[in-house]
Amino acid sequence: MAEISIYNISGQSVGKMELDKKIFNGEVNKAVLYQIVKMHEANLRQGNASTKTRSDVRGGGKKPWKQKGTGRARAGTSRSPLWRGGGIVFGPHPRDYSYSLPKSVKRIALISSLNSKLNDKELIVVDDIKISKPKTKEIAVALRNLKADERPLLVLDEKDEAIVRASRNIPQLILRDYRTLNAYDIIKQHKLVLTQKALVALTKLLVKQ
């Protein structure tokens, strides 16, 4: 089994832990990661783009000229798509771009993203994260000590209101519970910081699925 160092919030190594080879096998499925990124970005789209068809454009109720005898082409409305100020043909309309992938694909993507961070030495395990007061400075100093202050993803084993409040003012920090962790967040952020309990619980969850 692979081993990973455990640090305290001062950035000092306090031990090592073995990683389950069923999850941390070093394999990264890039095709599945691409599907996950594509799905998340599609789900973020608002789909608000809208254009007016000839029935939506104001005016054009009267026939511009009589049907015959003018020498010009027949015209029924001045709001035809062929005319300036007319409607738009096949333009965008509000729609829902969101979709979902199977649970098995999401699981493979999550495992692949974890292995990707492990391979790149961007996965950091801390023994515990406890702060005395909900102060932003305490979390910021801890992340700096762990060399994870640039776009970190902090994963806890349970919700801690003090850490939630302290993390709000740190730019580009994402805070997650291990149950809501997803591959997209892991890929997007530079450093993945997990508490030891969160990593153990996450591993058990993935092995069980």
- Residues in helices, as a percent range: 25-40%
Calculate the terminal CA-CA distance, rounded to whole Å.
20 Å
Q: What global shape is seen?
A: elongated
Under the CATH scheme, which architecture of the largest domain would be assigned? 3-Layer(aba) Sandwich
* Low-confidence spans: none
| CATH topology-level fold name of the largest domain | Ribosomal Protein L4, Chain: A
Number of helices: 6
Instruction: Kindly state the number of beta strands.
Output: 6
Count of distinct structural domains: 2
SSE string, helix = H, strand = E? EEHHEHEHEHEH
- How large a portion of the residues is in β-strands, by DSSP E? 5-15%
Structural features:
alpha/beta; 209 residues; Ribosomal Protein L4, Chain: A; 6-stranded mixed sheet; 6 strands; 14% strand; 33% helix; elongated; 6 helices
In short:
This protein has helices at 30-44, 103-119, 136-145, 161-167, 183-188, 196-208, and strands at 3-7, 13-18, 123-126, 152-156, 174-177, 191-195.
Mind sketching the topology for me?
Blueprint: E1 3-7, E2 13-18, H1 30-44, H2 103-119, E3 123-126, H3 136-145, E4 152-156, H4 161-167, E5 174-177, H5 183-188, E6 191-195, H6 196-208
Parallel strand pairs: 1-3, 3-6, 4-5, 4-6
Antiparallel strand pairs: 1-2
Architecture overview:
The mean pLDDT is 93. The protein folds into 2 domains: 3-45 and 99-208, 3-Layer(aba) Sandwich (Ribosomal Protein L4, Chain: A), CATH 3.40.1370; 47-96, no CATH class. The radius of gyration is 27 Å and the shape is elongated. Helix 1 (30-44) packs across helix 2 (103-119) and helix 3 (136-145) crosses helix 4. It has 209 residues and is α/β, with parallel strands linked by helices. The longest helix is centred in the middle third of the chain and has 17 residues, at 103-119. The protein contains 6 helices and 6 strands. A hairpin with a 5-residue loop joins strand 1 and strand 2. The protein has a 6-stranded mixed β-sheet with strand order 2-1-3-6-4-5. It is 33% helix and 14% strand.
